Amino acid sequence: MLAEHSKSKKIFDNGFQISKNADLASKIYGKENVVNATLGIFYNEEEEMHTLDIVNEEYKTLSGRELFNYSSSINGEELFIQAVKQYLFGKNFSKSLGENFSEVIAAPGGSGAIYNTFKNYINPGEVVLLPNYMWSSYKLMSKEVGGGYQTYSLFNKKGKFDLVNFKNSVMELAKIQKNLVIVLNNPCHNPTGYTLSSYEVKGVMNILKEACSLCNVVLINDIAYMDFNNKKNDLTEFCKDLPKNFLLMITFSMSKSFCCYGLRVGAQVAISSSKETIDTFLDASLYTCRSVWSNISKGGMTLFSNIVLNKKKYKQLVLEQTYMKNLLQERANIFLKEALEIDLKILPYKSGFFITIPFKKGDEEKIEKKLKEENIFAIIIPGAIRVAICSIPKYKIYNLASKIKKVIY
Ligand SMILES: Cc1ncc(COP(=O)(O)O)c(C=O)c1O
Prior knowledge:
- By secondary structure, the protein is of the alpha/beta class.
- It has 2 domains: 144 residues, Aspartate Aminotransferase, domain 1 (Alpha-Beta Complex), CATH 3.90.1150.10; 247 residues, 3-Layer(aba) Sandwich (Aspartate Aminotransferase, domain 2).
- It is 43% helix and 16% strand.
- Strands 2-8-7-6-5 form a 5-stranded mixed β-sheet, with helices on both faces. A 4-stranded mixed β-sheet has the order 1-10-11-9.
- The radius of gyration is 21 Å and the shape is globular.
- The N and C termini lie far apart (46 Å).
- The mean pLDDT is 96.
- Pyridoxal-5'-phosphate binds next to α6.
- Pyridoxal-5'-phosphate (PLP) binds next to α6.
- InterPro entries: Aminotransferase_I/II_large, Asp_trans, PyrdxlP-dep_Trfase, PyrdxlP-dep_Trfase_major, PyrdxlP-dep_Trfase_small.
- It comes from Candidatus Cetobacterium colombiensis.
């Protein structure tokens, strides 16, 4: 019955199923004996999903009309758009954007923002360039829009961003494609927790500017985890001296930073030195919004702008986010210290929700089974285990590195 192009669609990303298995194991063996490091959701030390007080309080003040009416436009509420710019670039956002043109469109989470970009910038038969360790939805989305994907290698032998491989991968595709869409997931990359240094960001931008002499370049920077960066975020380096055929697309999400996973609010922030590029972005993206999800939750957008545009509420938000960030760092430090002591190799981690442990490719099934026997539940990706430290309390992190080492070797 399915249309031809839908016949091979099947999701193998079984995170939600593994999490259910973890819940089942908790019932059988006791919660304290099970490590559920599966999903990218922040849990507190009591292993309950964490929510922010400022978000709960503000949500309760919203009127029925603010919550349930349609958004006043497909782009999103005007105040939401202003708040997104301010959230990313500060009050002086027009100064940070320099000579560039910019438009913001509300989307259902970061997922919607990325999908919308793939949809309108990948030509049929073209591939998107993804990191070799990645959030698996990128692959699904590239297929969904009729494209394919190739990967660049994230790390060199020194554990730094592999600019050489990145350049080779970009140039190879730039020579044969009209458009080249590239995904960077920075800061706090999922699944490794890596964040590029400013030197590496400059390197990436120089390579992409060079590629602009061969094809149009669209850089998606997925900033879903931006508020867990333990260094200050600076997006301005991505906006400097942009060639006319370069489009920067920052994809924003409320899910992780506001603990609002199910609210489904995010945005595409398009930046280019070409007015025409931004005008056509607006035309095509609004068309896609209208034809796929129409418009975004008015309540979610109002919640965001009410907090971000109010000095006192914003201050409380930052305080609560800092609490989460510090707790994550404490959890990470326990794991990293023990991993170092027992010589367990991990992929370069700076900050964020996940730590990734590589193993020999091909051993995935065996390792998943052995982890389960130890009552450890985590996502197995090709050649690595992703441990979601966002969802496990500190007391369960002690000795986890050594248990994982036993499973791998
Ligand atoms: C790397 C990355 N980007 C984007 C998202 C999108 O999240 P959402 O669609 O909930 O905003 C996620 C969610 O897990 C993610 O891990």
